[in-house]
Amino acid sequence: MDFFNKYLEKDRIFVKTIDRYYTYREIFNAVRYMSELIVDVNESKPTTIAIIATNPLKAVIAILASLKLGAKTAILNHKLPITKVSEQINNIKADLILSDILIDFNYNKLIIPDNLFENTSDFSILKISDFISCQSRTIIYSSGSTGKYKAIQHRVESHFYNALGSSENIEFESEDNWLVNLPLYHVGGLSSIFKAILANASISLASNNSNPAFDISCFKPSHVSLVATQLQRFIEDENTLPNLQNTKAILIGGSAIWNELLEKAVKLNLNIYISYGMTEMGSQIASSKKIKNVNENNAYRVLNYRRIKIINGEIFLAGECLFEGLISDGKLIEPFIDTYYPSGDLGNINYDGSLNIIGRKDNMFISGGENIHPEEIEALLNAIDQIEIAYVVPVFDHEFGQKGIAMIKYRKFISIDDIKKILKSKAANYKIPKHFIEIPNEMLGSGIKISRAELKNYAENYLKSI
Ligand code: 4YB
């Protein structure tokens, strides 16, 4: 598929911010200006550009300017400590940093200017290749929930294939607007840019530090991506719910989604699609159709341009969306086995071809000789109304080898005895966690995924202290 020769209508809205709307023509002008500035300042085309931007509009312009130059474009998380960011820059051997904040370190850097929209020169036609070179690559750092960051490099084409497969499942047309509520340094956020470009549609960019409930009410998008806990919160918020009810699609991803939540959402007439995704696949891998009835088979179906196979219970991934490799110390490592990537997720394919996700291979632990998949117990805990989010982590135990600890953030009070009663009615005794610990607020942070290693560490220290 030749995405790059596709023409775009230049006067369609591309980006909405709280302050104003920008057409493709305006964004492209800013991208051209920014890319020329990069070459001027750098005195040549950089090969690897790292972007550290707090302002999402500037981030979009910087990302596209870098992709226009055919550079490897790394979008870094500006919220990480500076030492971590430095490590990430060194690892990819970036030769230029584009940023909208003054960062005090010794790299070749360029501040993304404020006057991006002053240049208003026109052009007759607009093609995708005018602002994205097929040579360019993206780099996203992702840790999944392991806490250890990997630099994941994609061909830019893979992002378009991700968008194409997604749009065959969730219609997204030029009048539509996708709210970018996940950060642009996360694949869920970044993928919306490519979805919009492919459809000649628009994205809404949340302002800094605003909250998604406010953004949904403010932009009234037609499409939005949420993680399950956000959906849970928003359907109980009388200001947000009507706007969610007006959306054409709510894409839920990033973790398992429990049926009780889906049932509530479907009763409220929300257009829910659930998705199994991964950074390494440019976001979506397998998604449901619009969920009409939770009892029907809503299981995940592998989208086009992705291939999966199961080997010893593990999901192996391939296809046009698959990443190109991991960057380690500037070098590309290709961790593939016969062109497939071992995902680390466990799953199985049902008789009708749909996919079940069991959990992560490395989350599984053995307690008293029995295998426990934390995700199974987490789904039961998350379905309890008084619980906002729950995780199960293993710690060492003299008697069982390892024992499960439930880490919980509560929404309302519920006694541990009542939680245990609910679990016992639904799961074998050996799967019931041995301790229940409240997650401190500061551990939840603003990330999409909490680090299981940090939770485990906290649980171990907590148990020692009691
Ligand atoms: C799951 C899972 C599932 C992931 N069941 N485990 O655009 C999107 O795809 C999107 C929309 C809304 C919210 C998030 C997204 C994402 O991008 C999610 C992508 C993501 O989570 N990538 S990740 O690299 O950070 O983590 C991947 C891992 O997350 C997988 O390997 C699974 O272990 C887990 N996961 N979806 C159960 N439906």
Structure explained in plain terms:
- With 466 residues, this protein is α/β, with parallel strands linked by helices.
- It has 2 domains: 350 residues, ANL, N-terminal domain (Rossmann fold, 3-Layer(aba) Sandwich), CATH 3.40.50; 102 residues, GMP Synthetase, Chain A, domain 3 (2-Layer Sandwich), CATH 3.30.300.
- Helices cover 29% and strands 28% of the residues.
- The protein has 13 helices and 28 strands.
- Strand 22 and strand 23 form a beta hairpin.
- Helix 1 packs across helix 2.
Alpha-carbon distance between the two ends? 60 Å
CATH level-3 fold name of the largest domain: Rossmann fold
Fourth-level CATH superfamily of the largest domain = ANL, N-terminal domain
Question: How big is the Rg?
Answer: 22 Å
CATH class of the largest domain: Alpha Beta
Helix content: 25-40%
What's the layout of helices and strands?
Elements: E1 7-8, E2 13-16, E3 21-23, H1 24-42, E4 48-52, H2 56-68, E5 72-75, H3 82-92, E6 96-99, E7 109-111, E8 126-127, E9 137-142, E10 150-155, H4 156-169, E11 177-180, H5 187-199, E12 202-205, H6 212-219, E13 223-226, H7 228-234, H8 241-245, E14 249-252, H9 259-267, E15 272-278, E16 283-287, E17 301-302, E18 307-311, E19 314-318, E20 325-328, E21 331-333, E22 341-349, E23 355-360, E24 365-367, E25 370-372, H10 374-382, E26 387-397, E27 401-410, H11 416-424, E28 435-438, H12 441-444, H13 452-465
Parallel strand pairs: 2-12, 4-5, 4-6, 5-9, 6-7, 11-12, 11-13, 13-14, 14-15, 27-28
Antiparallel strand pairs: 1-8, 2-3, 9-10, 10-20, 15-16, 16-17, 18-19, 19-22, 20-21, 22-23, 24-25, 26-27
This protein binds 5'-O-{[4-(2-carboxyphenyl)-4-oxobutanoyl]sulfamoyl}adenosine.
